Amino acid sequence: MSTIKRTFPVEGLGCAACVARVEGAIKAVEGVKECNVSLASNTAQVEYDNAVTNAAQLRKAVIAAGYDIIVEEDSDAESEDPEFVAEEKADELRSKEYRNIRRDMILAIILAIAVFIIQMGVKDFHGKGITIFLLAAVSVFWCGRRFHTSAIKQARHFSAGMDTLVSISTLISFIFSTFNLIFPSVLAPEGGTAPLYFDSATMITAFILIGRVLEERAKYGTTESIRKLMALRPKKDKVKVGETVKVKPGSRIPVDGVVVEGNSFVNESMLTGEPLAVEKYEGKKVFAGTLNGNGALKVLAERTGSDTMLSGIIRMVREAQGSKPAIQRTVDKVAAVFVPVVLLIAIATFIGWLTVPGAGFAKALLNMVSVLVIACPCALGLATPTAIVAGIGNGADKGILIKNADALQLAHKIDAVVFDKTGTLTIGEPRISHSIWFSEFSRGILKAMEMNSGHPLAAALVDEAGDVEPKKISDFINIPGKGIEATYMSTSYFIGNSSPRSCPEAEQWKKEGKTVVYFSSESDLLAVFAVEDELRGSAVDVIEELKGLGIENYLLSGDTSASTGLTARKLGIDKFEGSAFPADKVAYIKELQKGRHKVAMVGDGINDSAALASADLSVAMGGGSDIAMDSAMVTIVSSDIAKVPQLIVLSRNTNRIIRENLFWAFIYNVLMIPMAAGLFGFCLNPMIAAACMALSSVCVVCNSLRLRNK
Question: pLDDT (tens digit, 9 = 90+) per residue, 267-276?
Answer without folding.
Answer: 877 666 666 6
